[in-house]
Design goal:
By secondary structure, the chain is α/β, with parallel strands linked by helices. It is built from ten helices and eleven strands. A four-stranded antiparallel β-sheet has the order 4-5-8-9. β8 and β9 form a beta hairpin. The mean pLDDT is 93.
Length: 280
């Protein structure tokens, strides 16, 4: 089987060293396997995605020396595909409308306490109709209970991890989608959610290996469930460690990590950065 992997950033900010490390890891893996490398722009978060960040991604990756197949898939151009997948799940009774806000779900939870995975159920038809008539916003949530019944349990859901999760998880792993609760698949403000779009596109594009940071290891569990429900192939996963700065914290957009554009402007060369990151 041909080796196909991808780098799939979101254009919600400029790329930093951590992104460069992830992109180079996937790109090098494809080269070493004589395989294909894809670039996908995951811009379904319409509230935060910006065209200037999209353009900067292409500029930064080209500066790093990466190349990819064209055309680049931009998720915002294919929303109909994802809504069709949700409709297929809805027709089988696997999703339900949830009218609860994040604030309502978090009521009673102290700020220092971790969020508890939400598990709910459809409203009685009369109440749901009334709330829809009032124009109340809702999210489509995947029902773990309905999914478990449809599959006859989650025991057969496994995935292959060639890298390692945050706790060293590797090899053949039992998927644990229940740890995520009834995840949101779509909501009004951000449209279709990450998990659904990712599994759809990985299957459509023939991705055989998902190579990404171990901070996304837990996402593989719920994505494995969606693959089973939508009858999609399961890629091999290869999660890698995260690049951290001098302070020991991983690079992140929200922490205003130094961007590749800033590095370039300061005189750092692509060759020097690649060598710093362990890619000669």
């Amino acid at each position: 089987m041909a080796f196909v992997t991808r780098f799939a950033p979101s254009p919600t900010g400029y790329l930093h060293r951590g992104h460069a490390y992830a992109a180079l890891t996937a790109y090098t893996a494809a080269q070493n396997a004589g395989g294909r490398f894809l670039l996908r722009i995951e811009d379904i978060d319409v509230t935060r995605s910006r065209p200037e960040y999209d353009a900067a991604i292409l500029e930064d990756l080209t500066w790093l020396g990466l190349s990819w197949e064209e055309p680049v898939r931009r998720q915002s151009e294919h929303l109909g595909d994802y809504h069709a997948a949700i409709e297929a799940l809805r027709a089988r009774g696997l999703v339900y409308r949830c009218f609860k806000t994040r604030k309502e779900i978090d009521i009673g939870r102290a700020p220092h306490e971790p969020a508890v995975p939400y598990v709910g159920a459809p409203l009685p038809p009369d109440e749901e109709a009334e709330r829809l008539d009032r124009g109340e916003a809702f999210a489509w949530r995947l029902s773990l209970a309905a999914a478990r019944e449809a599959l006859g349990g989650f025991e057969t859901l496994t995935l292959i991890e060639e890298g390692a999760g945050p706790n060293g998880e590797t090899g053949l792993i039992q998927a644990r989608p229940e740890t995520a609760g009834d995840i949101v698949l779509a909501r009004k403000d951000v449209g279709v959610a990450y998990h659904l779009a990712v599994v759809h596109d990985d299957a459509l594009q023939g991705v055989t290996h998902v190579i990404r940071g171990c901070d996304l290891f837990e996402a593989a569990h719920i994505q494995r469930l969606l693959q089973a429900l939508l009858d999609l192939p399961t890629p091999t996963y290869r999660h890698h460690g995260l690049l951290v700065g001098p302070d020991g914290k991983r690079y992140a957009k929200r922490d205003k990590a130094q961007t590749l554009r800033e590095l370039r402007a300061s005189g750092v060369t692509a060759t020097a950065l690649r060598e710093e990151l362990g890619f000669s």
